[in-house]
Amino acid sequence: MSPKKILPLLLLAAFATQAANASISLLAIGTLDGSGADLSAKTSGLLENGLAGNLLGGVGSGLAWAGGNTFIATPDRGPNATAYNPLVDDTTSYIARFQTINLALTQNTSGSGLAYNLTPVLSATTLLSSATPLVYGTGALGTGTVGSTSYTLGSGVPLLNAIDKTNYFTGRSDNFDASKSSSNPNNARLDPEAVRVSNDGKSVFVSDEYGPYVYQFDRASGTRIKSFELPSNLAISKPSAQSSIEIAGNSSGRVTNKGMEGLAISPDGKTLVGIMQAPLAQDSNKNVRIVTIDIASGATHQYAYKLSTGSGVSEIVALNDHQFLVDERDGKGLGDGTTAVAKQIFKIDLTGAQDVSNISGDLSSKAVGKSLLLDVVSTLNANGISSNNIPSKIEGMAFGEDLMIKGVKTHTLYVSNDNDFVAGSAGHNKFYVFGVTDADLGAGYSYTAQAVSAVPEPSSYAMLLAGLAFVGVAVRRRKINN
Fold first, then answer.
1. Residue 303 is part of which domain span?
2. In what residue span(s) does the Phytase-like domain sit (predicted)?
């Protein structure tokens, strides 16, 4: 076929892709100041790198709907952009946590700007811990030399452990048992990358990059209540505190800092669906793994997803019990000193997909089908946001409450960024809200909202209990007076 004939076809294909998604609108943008502190004052002491242990940032790494206007957000392993010790890749004993945020949409009646206003408000900070002892770095690495510079390393145990008599999870990379594989649930190191809320609203599920792990935590206390055993082919056998050594020392399992980046939950709350950020060391040709987990039994299945233009996957969210949206992106944009190129949301269907649990290598022939739902970069560009101001790490994704817009039911898709705790270069934590209708999803696809029960936010539990106690006293008094 001649070049003259090919060009019109390419233009037609590009136009068809745009037209199919042109009705998905940007409804609102909200900003959470990432240069302040979160609500955990007792972690405000200085970390090893000199930064405050309650620095607010990274909250868009994972995002989950908790009913109403309430969302749960997970910062990842903490502020490690400040160089202080390459023996642990500059990671610190920052305590893993999740943030409870109110993201209420209100109509914009000003006559200019987007159709809705969004004002994120942080309402609670919950620290993550284990009821059983965890393995921390003892400082046994002692003095080490990287290049021509010598470094010393102290214990990785958070000071707050002794004060609270609690075993907190932290982001420091040496908090692991070197005699066991990376999937050891007793390791204290945790890099939360995704979060989902249980249907009863009382617990959260968190996936991580270090293990990879999927843990269930009590939403009120932050205490771990369950560990899911993931397939052994996801883990590495020789963990290290330094990523370069860890990558070089393992020929199978997750690649360092590219573990279980995304996590979905089925609308009925019975199945978790995790997705790896990048191919496992034993896989090839841009194929990453999707792992389904039956919450009750722990049974797992694995499926292949092939990357298109992005260098990795950051999130997965459920449309229903078998169809999902996948956030595929590159690392370019605000925070990387470049301009954003690939930030795309694809839709997939696991119906009939082949289980790849027992095979490795090039999984392309087994990969699930996919089609583009939303090009985030072009949509933001169309709303006056230049590519150099689009965050490099678009990582969180969650559906919120439906809206009626001009008589059409519209699903609200919230998308957030991870600013790596460096607001100065990567900008503040942003929340973008897109309106998606059933027509936008296309033939054969449908959306079912997760049935999440509303529960008091963590900061409200104490007041609730106090109120119940007061009611109890009043009832007893009435009985006595009668």
1. 3-451
2. 56-421
